[in-house]
Write a structure and sequence with these properties.
With 190 residues, the protein is α/β, with parallel strands linked by helices. It is built from 5 helices and 7 strands; from the N terminus they run αβαβαβαβαβββ. The chain has a domain of 103 residues: Rossmann fold (3-Layer(aba) Sandwich). Helix 2 links the parallel strand 1 and strand 2.
Protein backbone atom coordinates (compact mmCIF):
# COMPACT_ATOMS: atom_id res chain seq x y z
CA UNK A 1 0.00 0.00 0.00
CA UNK A 2 1.42 3.34 -1.10
CA UNK A 3 0.41 6.97 -1.23
CA UNK A 4 -0.75 7.59 -4.79
CA UNK A 5 -0.18 11.31 -5.37
CA UNK A 6 1.07 14.55 -3.88
CA UNK A 7 4.20 15.41 -1.92
CA UNK A 8 4.29 11.94 -0.28
CA UNK A 9 3.67 10.11 -3.57
CA UNK A 10 5.07 6.59 -3.69
CA UNK A 11 5.76 6.40 0.05
CA UNK A 12 5.01 3.00 1.54
CA UNK A 13 2.33 2.95 4.22
CA UNK A 14 3.81 -0.17 5.78
CA UNK A 15 2.21 -3.18 7.35
CA UNK A 16 -1.56 -3.26 7.80
CA UNK A 17 -2.59 -4.14 11.38
CA UNK A 18 -4.52 -7.39 11.81
CA UNK A 19 -8.27 -6.92 11.48
CA UNK A 20 -7.97 -3.69 9.46
CA UNK A 21 -9.37 -3.52 5.93
CA UNK A 22 -7.61 -0.66 4.14
CA UNK A 23 -9.17 1.17 1.22
CA UNK A 24 -7.52 -0.29 -1.86
CA UNK A 25 -5.22 1.80 -4.04
CA UNK A 26 -7.71 1.58 -6.93
CA UNK A 27 -10.62 2.84 -4.82
CA UNK A 28 -8.48 5.62 -3.27
CA UNK A 29 -7.28 6.75 -6.69
CA UNK A 30 -10.85 6.87 -8.05
CA UNK A 31 -12.12 8.61 -4.93
CA UNK A 32 -9.56 11.39 -5.05
CA UNK A 33 -9.94 11.75 -8.80
CA UNK A 34 -13.67 12.32 -8.24
CA UNK A 35 -13.12 14.71 -5.33
CA UNK A 36 -10.73 16.93 -7.23
CA UNK A 37 -8.61 19.31 -5.19
CA UNK A 38 -8.54 18.84 -1.43
CA UNK A 39 -5.95 21.59 -1.02
CA UNK A 40 -6.54 23.70 2.08
CA UNK A 41 -9.37 21.41 3.26
CA UNK A 42 -9.84 20.30 6.82
CA UNK A 43 -10.41 16.54 6.85
CA UNK A 44 -11.97 14.21 9.41
CA UNK A 45 -11.05 10.54 8.88
CA UNK A 46 -13.45 8.48 11.02
CA UNK A 47 -12.69 4.79 11.56
CA UNK A 48 -9.21 5.71 10.30
CA UNK A 49 -7.58 2.28 10.45
CA UNK A 50 -4.36 2.60 8.44
CA UNK A 51 -5.01 6.32 7.89
CA UNK A 52 -4.64 5.80 4.13
CA UNK A 53 -7.51 8.16 3.22
CA UNK A 54 -6.40 10.97 5.50
CA UNK A 55 -2.74 10.56 4.52
CA UNK A 56 -3.64 10.63 0.83
CA UNK A 57 -5.58 13.85 1.44
CA UNK A 58 -2.67 15.37 3.37
CA UNK A 59 -0.24 14.40 0.62
CA UNK A 60 -2.52 16.19 -1.85
CA UNK A 61 -2.52 19.44 0.11
CA UNK A 62 -5.16 19.11 2.84
CA UNK A 63 -4.52 21.72 5.51
CA UNK A 64 -5.45 19.50 8.46
CA UNK A 65 -6.39 15.88 9.10
CA UNK A 66 -7.95 14.47 12.26
CA UNK A 67 -7.78 10.66 12.37
CA UNK A 68 -10.27 8.96 14.70
CA UNK A 69 -9.60 5.33 15.59
CA UNK A 70 -11.23 3.35 18.39
CA UNK A 71 -8.58 0.61 18.71
CA UNK A 72 -5.58 1.69 20.79
CA UNK A 73 -3.34 -0.81 18.98
CA UNK A 74 -4.41 0.38 15.52
CA UNK A 75 -4.02 4.01 16.62
CA UNK A 76 -0.48 3.25 17.85
CA UNK A 77 0.29 1.65 14.47
CA UNK A 78 -1.04 4.80 12.77
CA UNK A 79 1.19 7.01 14.94
CA UNK A 80 4.18 4.81 14.03
CA UNK A 81 3.19 5.15 10.36
CA UNK A 82 3.18 8.95 10.71
CA UNK A 83 6.64 8.78 12.30
CA UNK A 84 7.99 6.53 9.53
CA UNK A 85 6.74 9.08 6.98
CA UNK A 86 8.52 11.88 8.86
CA UNK A 87 5.19 13.37 9.97
CA UNK A 88 5.36 12.80 13.74
CA UNK A 89 4.71 16.04 15.57
CA UNK A 90 3.03 17.73 12.58
CA UNK A 91 0.44 20.06 14.10
CA UNK A 92 -1.79 19.56 11.06
CA UNK A 93 -2.14 15.84 11.83
CA UNK A 94 -3.93 14.59 14.93
CA UNK A 95 -4.71 11.01 15.99
CA UNK A 96 -7.68 10.73 18.35
CA UNK A 97 -8.20 7.42 20.15
CA UNK A 98 -11.94 7.26 20.60
CA UNK A 99 -15.05 5.75 19.15
CA UNK A 100 -16.49 7.84 16.33
CA UNK A 101 -19.58 9.07 18.17
CA UNK A 102 -17.66 10.35 21.19
CA UNK A 103 -15.10 11.99 18.91
CA UNK A 104 -17.77 13.78 16.87
CA UNK A 105 -19.45 14.97 20.09
CA UNK A 106 -16.17 16.33 21.46
CA UNK A 107 -15.28 17.97 18.14
CA UNK A 108 -18.70 19.63 17.98
CA UNK A 109 -17.95 21.26 21.32
CA UNK A 110 -14.31 22.18 20.72
CA UNK A 111 -14.12 22.75 16.96
CA UNK A 112 -17.53 23.66 15.48
CA UNK A 113 -17.97 23.93 11.69
CA UNK A 114 -14.39 22.77 11.21
CA UNK A 115 -14.48 20.11 8.48
CA UNK A 116 -14.80 20.39 4.71
CA UNK A 117 -14.54 16.66 4.03
CA UNK A 118 -15.23 13.59 6.15
CA UNK A 119 -14.37 9.98 5.38
CA UNK A 120 -16.60 7.41 7.10
CA UNK A 121 -15.36 3.85 6.69
CA UNK A 122 -16.58 1.58 9.49
CA UNK A 123 -15.56 -2.08 9.54
CA UNK A 124 -17.44 -4.34 7.12
CA UNK A 125 -17.84 -6.95 9.83
CA UNK A 126 -21.37 -7.95 10.72
CA UNK A 127 -22.90 -5.00 12.51
CA UNK A 128 -20.31 -2.52 11.24
CA UNK A 129 -22.80 -1.17 8.74
CA UNK A 130 -25.15 -0.33 11.60
CA UNK A 131 -22.62 2.24 12.84
CA UNK A 132 -22.96 4.30 9.65
CA UNK A 133 -26.48 5.65 10.05
CA UNK A 134 -26.20 6.95 13.63
CA UNK A 135 -22.78 8.50 12.97
CA UNK A 136 -24.02 10.16 9.77
CA UNK A 137 -27.05 11.63 11.54
CA UNK A 138 -24.77 12.85 14.29
CA UNK A 139 -22.24 14.34 11.85
CA UNK A 140 -24.86 16.31 9.96
CA UNK A 141 -26.59 17.42 13.15
CA UNK A 142 -23.62 18.13 15.44
CA UNK A 143 -22.30 21.26 13.77
CA UNK A 144 -18.82 19.88 12.95
CA UNK A 145 -19.31 20.31 9.19
CA UNK A 146 -18.79 23.47 7.21
CA UNK A 147 -21.91 24.47 5.23
CA UNK A 148 -20.64 23.04 1.93
CA UNK A 149 -18.97 19.94 3.44
CA UNK A 150 -18.96 16.56 1.73
CA UNK A 151 -19.07 13.25 3.56
CA UNK A 152 -17.83 10.15 1.74
CA UNK A 153 -18.99 6.80 3.08
CA UNK A 154 -17.26 3.56 2.17
CA UNK A 155 -19.19 0.35 2.63
CA UNK A 156 -20.04 -2.98 1.09
CA UNK A 157 -22.18 -2.97 -2.06
CA UNK A 158 -24.50 -5.49 -0.38
CA UNK A 159 -25.49 -2.86 2.22
CA UNK A 160 -26.18 0.51 0.51
CA UNK A 161 -27.19 3.40 2.73
CA UNK A 162 -30.92 3.87 3.25
CA UNK A 163 -32.39 7.37 2.81
CA UNK A 164 -31.51 9.53 5.82
CA UNK A 165 -33.46 12.64 6.88
CA UNK A 166 -31.67 15.90 6.09
CA UNK A 167 -28.96 14.15 4.06
CA UNK A 168 -28.86 13.66 0.31
CA UNK A 169 -26.79 11.41 -1.90
CA UNK A 170 -24.71 13.43 -4.38
CA UNK A 171 -22.98 10.48 -6.06
CA UNK A 172 -22.49 6.73 -5.70
CA UNK A 173 -19.82 4.54 -7.27
CA UNK A 174 -19.18 0.80 -7.12
CA UNK A 175 -15.74 -0.80 -7.18
CA UNK A 176 -16.13 -4.57 -6.93
CA UNK A 177 -17.53 -5.20 -3.42
CA UNK A 178 -16.97 -1.58 -2.35
CA UNK A 179 -19.57 1.18 -2.59
CA UNK A 180 -18.57 4.84 -2.17
CA UNK A 181 -21.39 7.26 -1.42
CA UNK A 182 -20.94 11.07 -1.44
CA UNK A 183 -23.31 12.92 0.89
CA UNK A 184 -24.24 16.53 1.56
CA UNK A 185 -26.74 18.28 3.76
CA UNK A 186 -30.12 18.21 1.99
CA UNK A 187 -30.41 21.99 2.02
CA UNK A 188 -27.02 22.56 0.29
CA UNK A 189 -26.48 22.67 -3.48
CA UNK A 190 -23.96 20.41 -5.29
Amino acid sequence: MRIISGHLRGRDLGRVPDGVRPTTDRVRESLFSSLGSVGECSILDLFAGTGALGLEAYSRGAERVVFVERSKGVARALQKRLASLGLAGEEALQVVVSDARRAVQRLSESDPAAFDLVFVDPPYVEGGESEREPILSMLFGAGVLRPDATVVVEGPTRHPLPPLPGIRVVDERRYGDTLLTWLRAADRPD
